[in-house]
Design goal:
It contains two helices and five strands; from the N terminus they run αββαβββ. It is α+β, with helices and mostly antiparallel strands and 107 residues long. The model has no long low-confidence stretch (mean pLDDT 85).
Length: 107
């Protein structure tokens, strides 16, 4: 199972990118921000105010071994959610069957 290593890599990318953008605020009233993180290209897109916007951007490209990508969300501490299987109440872990062209190894 390599999936968790890739998920952690993409979460770290999202956290660094959000911090660089000034979105890391220790505030319990922080609005959620969603991002599309691509470990293959080392790029983060966003922020998006809702999961459907991020999902639409994610789905512009098919996920696969050479395009490892997912939607990430920042929590109230400005850190990306450690387990991205459920994002904004949607089942990203289901992949294409759940409407997400995400990819991480092991699932």
């Amino acid at each position: 199972w390599y999936g968790w290593a890739e998920i952690k890599q993409m979460n770290t990318m999202a956290n660094k990118w959000a911090k660089k953008q000034g979105l890391i605020i220790d505030n319990p009233f922080l609005e959620k921000y969603y991002f599309v993180v691509n470990a293959s290209t080392k790029k983060v897109k966003g922020p998006y105010k809702n999961v459907l916007e991020a999902q639409k951007v994610l789905n512009e490209h098919k996920g696969g071994p050479s395009n490892r990508q997912m939607v990430a969300v920042l929590n109230e501490k400005g850190e990306s959610k450690s387990d991205p299987h459920t994002i904004g109440g949607l089942n990203q872990g289901a992949g294409e069957a759940g409407g997400f062209n995400k990819w991480w190894s092991g699932w």
